[in-house]
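Data card: per-record layout.
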Amino acid sequence: MPPPEWRPTVHVQPPPPRTLPPQDLPALDAAESSARTLTYGIGMVSGAVVLVLMCLLCSRALF
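The structure for this 63-residue chain is written out next.
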């Protein structure tokens, strides 16, 4: 086991991080709104399908 202060030798220093491009906040808000609408739509459709299947299974068990 190496001693606790042991570190591998560093030969190349990484360059400093570059600056990030500016964000288009109105476009981000529009994309998030669109994604939320799609997510809610998929959730409602899948919920309706599960409700119909549960009604079919329960009616099949009762009758």
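Known properties of this structure: The helical segments are 25-62. The first helix runs from residue 25 to 62.

See the next section for split statistics.
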